[in-house]
């Protein structure tokens, strides 16, 4: 592959790796492979949407030299945007809620972003909320552009153009199922739509959703708080195409976290909680539908477990949040008492 001209040129073309332990232990006969989005330069699938959103904004004249990118985000999208923006000479300002950890703010600052902190305990329409603050900054700062990842069609379009074709090529068209968590819905809508188009509808698309989120809730009474980050929603975003998933599997936090920890300890894959949730959904689906050896299930793992060391991989945090039984099942005995 030689020498890339810029870190932005390293976005995409992430590897697929086969799971050799978890499916077998779950009695799943299908082949289950994971697409490792933490291999992107900013460490997540969000680098893809950042590049395409910025490209489109430049083309449409919404971003001009010296312009600023303003978004209410604390996580992967911020990193992706900051990375692409600094390479193109734009200022980035992220509005984050005060509950966002110092380490997440530090990562964004390390990439050169400016951080504005807004209170967590106010509703979205309150003028102090991080959404309202971001909107005001976008109005007031000359040359400001707000990507709005939840409604920006370039999110799903980036996955249609890159993630989908990469999976089709890497599996030589043998992929039968695609499984992904749903946050903005961009990943599943773009990738899933591409795989359906290219396979004449033969690829089955399965969404993974936290127990409590709207995508898998039968009624509003089924919506409640959950701990897994980056996925699930309380209202439908524009980036999500509800026609794409054939089925949506509901995953409880405990199952998502247990699978996340086992991916690290048994498969050597240090991935985040939404990745564990997607793998848990894939294994449930494969078992339920009795998928066989010829079925090739591709699961998208959005980011790295490094961002969750203080939570999912910390036994005290897990016990404190009611996941003591998960800790007992997934911890190896220590030699030092
Ligand atoms: N996992 C993590 C960790 C994320 O940050 C996101 C994006 N919010 C997702 C999964 C879901 O991806 P998408 O927004 O494309 O549905």
UniProtKB/TrEMBL annotation:
Cytoplasm is among the record's keywords: no
Q: Which cofactor does it need?
A: pyridoxal 5'-phosphate
- Which Gene3D superfamilies has this protein been placed in? 3.40.50.1100
Q: Name one Pfam family in it.
A: PALP
**Tryptophan synthase beta chain-like PALP domain sequence ranges:** 10-303
Alphabetical UniProt keywords = Pyridoxal phosphate
GO MF assignments: transferase activity, transferring alkyl or aryl (other than methyl) groups
Which InterPro entries does this one have? Cys_Synth/Cystath_Beta-Synth, P-phosphate_BS, TrpB-like_PALP, TrpB-like_PALP_sf
One GO process term, biological-process aspect? cysteine biosynthetic process from serine
Highest taxon of the source? Bacteria
From the record, give the transmembrane residue ranges.
none
What protein family is recorded? Belongs to the cysteine synthase/cystathionine beta-synthase family.
In its UniProt entry, what is this protein called?
Pyridoxal-phosphate dependent enzyme
């Amino acid at each position: 592959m030689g020498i890339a001209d810029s870190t932005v040129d390293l976005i995409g073309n992430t590897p697929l790796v086969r799971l050799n332990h978890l499916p077998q232990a779950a009695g799943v006969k299908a082949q289950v492979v994971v697409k490792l989005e933490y291999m992107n330069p900013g460490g997540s699938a969000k680098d893809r949407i950042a590049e395409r959103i910025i490209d489109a904004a430049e083309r449409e004249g919404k971003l001009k030299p010296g312009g600023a990118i303003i978004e209410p985000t604390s996580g992967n999208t911020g990193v992706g945007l900051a990375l692409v923006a600094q390479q193109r000479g734009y200022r980035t300002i992220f509005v984050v809620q005060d509950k966002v950890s110092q380490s997440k703010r530090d990562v964004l600052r390390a990439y050169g972003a400016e951080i504005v902190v807004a209170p967590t305990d106010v509703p979205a329409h309150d003028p102090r909320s991080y959404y309202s603050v971001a909107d005001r900054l976008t109005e007031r700062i000359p040359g400001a552009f707000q990507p709005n990842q939840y409604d920006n069609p370039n999110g799903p379009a980036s996955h249609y153009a890159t993630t989908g074709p990469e999976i089709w090529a890497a599996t030589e068209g043998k992929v039968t199922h695609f499984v992904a968590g749903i946050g903005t819905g961009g990943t599943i809508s773009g990738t899933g739509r591409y795989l359906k188009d290219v396979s004449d509808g033969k690829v089955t698309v399965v969404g993974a959703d936290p127990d409590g989120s709207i995508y898998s809730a039968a009624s509003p009474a089924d919506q409640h708080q959950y701990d897994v980050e980056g996925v699930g929603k309380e209202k439908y975003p524009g980036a999500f195409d509800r026609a794409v998933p054939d089925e949506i599997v509901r995953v409880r936090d405990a199952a998502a976290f247990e699978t996340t920890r086992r991916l690290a300890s048994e498969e050597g894959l240090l991935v985040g909680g939404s990745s564990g949730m997607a793998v848990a959904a894939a294994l449930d689906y494969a078992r339920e539908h009795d998928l066989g050896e010829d079925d090739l299930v591709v699961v998208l793992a959005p980011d790295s477990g490094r961002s969750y060391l203080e939570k999912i991989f910390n036994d005290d945090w897990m016990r404190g949040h009611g996941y003591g039984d998960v800790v007992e099942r997934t911890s190896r005995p220590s030699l030092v008492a």
